[in-house]
């Protein structure tokens, strides 16, 4: 078992139950939690996608945002339940977002009204609020005219969590053992920055091949490594690296080449 219980924190700033949402995500009427600390529980969620398996822990807490202890650094996602008809619940959500600073942040409610109530916010206002804080609004009771092809509600929550590269995930088909990302972290911590730098250069070049297509499966399998590599780069280097990765994903999805030709103009000029 992962001693840190890496996972996602679910908090409620309104009357909605976090335990109810946990059961919907896990898709089980009964799931036994692990006691993490006083007032904090972690529900194990066995995740299995086409590409990986992982045990992700859905944390809930009765502590206030001020009293919640996030020192374990095992919370990578945050789901905040709020009421769009009560502005103060968004103010509380803002405090949770600021404290946890997670990679995945989902703001969840039943349905946002098209027009704001006296003490609330309209859907447009909530969307603007989310854009400013780099989080996603998910409505569990969307309007009927919403695009049926897009995942909504709990299905969208699950989809968003599946897309995150959890540190404890095991890629399907991989031989168990230390991950490549873990090995790279070890080399850096031991001071072998030269070798890590060489690996980074080779990896970057591999992701920017001369137009060779890379399958989505191959890209997803490398996603953890990509994130580790990007964290070691400076601002401009990270931007260039992100462009190369974005181009490969675009090609893997079958996107038109002329849509991304501008991003790789610098690379083309060097050839």
Could you explain how this protein is built, in words?
The chain has 271 residues and is of the alpha/beta class. The protein has two domains: 5-171, Rossmann fold, CATH 3.40.50.300; 198-259. 39% of the residues lie in helices and 18% in strands. The chain has ten helices and eight strands. The protein has helices at residues 18-26, 87-100, 123-132, 153-162, 180-189, 193-207, 216-221, 223-231, 235-252, 265-270; strands at 7-12, 34-37, 40-48, 52-61, 75-81, 104-109, 136-139, 170-171. Strands 1, 2, 3, 4, 5, 6, 7 and 8 form an eight-stranded mixed β-sheet that branches. Strand 2 (34-37) and strand 3 (40-48) form a beta hairpin. The N and C termini lie far apart (48 Å). 24% of the residues are buried. It comes from Rhipicephalus pulchellus (Yellow backed tick). Residues 181-196 have a biased composition (Polar residues). InterPro entries: Alpha/Gamma-adaptin-bd_p34 (IPR019341). Residues 167-196 are annotated as: Disordered. This is Putative alpha-and gamma-adaptin binding protein.
Secondary-structure arrangement, i.e. CATH architecture of the largest domain: 3-Layer(aba) Sandwich
Main pleated sheet: 8 strands, mixed
What is the CATH superfamily of the largest domain? P-loop containing nucleotide triphosphate hydrolases
| N-to-C CA distance | 48 Å
In percent, how helical is the residue content? 25-40%
Given the C-alpha coordinates, what overall shape results? globular
Total count of helical runs of at least 4 residues: 10
Derived from helix and strand composition plus strand pairing, the structural class reads: alpha/beta
Low-confidence blocks of residues: 178-212, 264-271
CATH third-level topology of the largest domain: Rossmann fold
């Amino acid at each position: 078992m992962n001693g840190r219980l890496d996972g996602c924190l679910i908090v409620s700033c309104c009357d909605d139950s976090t335990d109810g949402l946990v059961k919907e995500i896990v898709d089980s009427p009964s799931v036994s939690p692990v006691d993490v600390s006083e007032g904090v529980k972690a529900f194990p969620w066995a995740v299995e996608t086409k590409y990986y398996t992982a045990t992700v822990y859905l944390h809930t807490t009765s502590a206030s945002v001020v009293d919640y202890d996030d020192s374990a650094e095992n919370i990578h996602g945050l789901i905040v339940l709020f009421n769009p008809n009560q502005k103060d619940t968004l103010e509380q959500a803002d405090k949770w977002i600021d404290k946890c600073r997670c990679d995945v942040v989902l703001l969840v409610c039943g349905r946002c009204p098209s027009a704001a109530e006296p003490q609330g916010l309209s859907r447009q206002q909530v969307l603007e609020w989310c854009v400013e804080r780099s989080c996603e609004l998910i409505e569990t009771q969307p309007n009927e005219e919403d695009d049926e092809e897009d995942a909504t509600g709990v299905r969208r929550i699950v989809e968003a969590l599946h897309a995150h590269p959890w540190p404890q995930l095991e890629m399907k088909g991989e031989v168990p053992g230390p991950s490549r990302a873990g090995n790279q972290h070890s080399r850096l911590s031991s001071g072998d920055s030269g070798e890590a730098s060489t690996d980074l250069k080779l990896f970057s070049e591999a992701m920017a091949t001369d137009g060779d297509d890379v399958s989505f499966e191959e890209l997803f399998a490398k996603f953890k490594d990509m994130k580790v590599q990007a964290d070691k780069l400076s601002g401009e280097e990270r931007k260039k690296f992100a462009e190369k990765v974005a181009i490969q994903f675009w090609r893997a999805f079958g996107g038109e080449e002329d849509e991304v030709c501008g991003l790789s103009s610098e690379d083309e000029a060097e050839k």
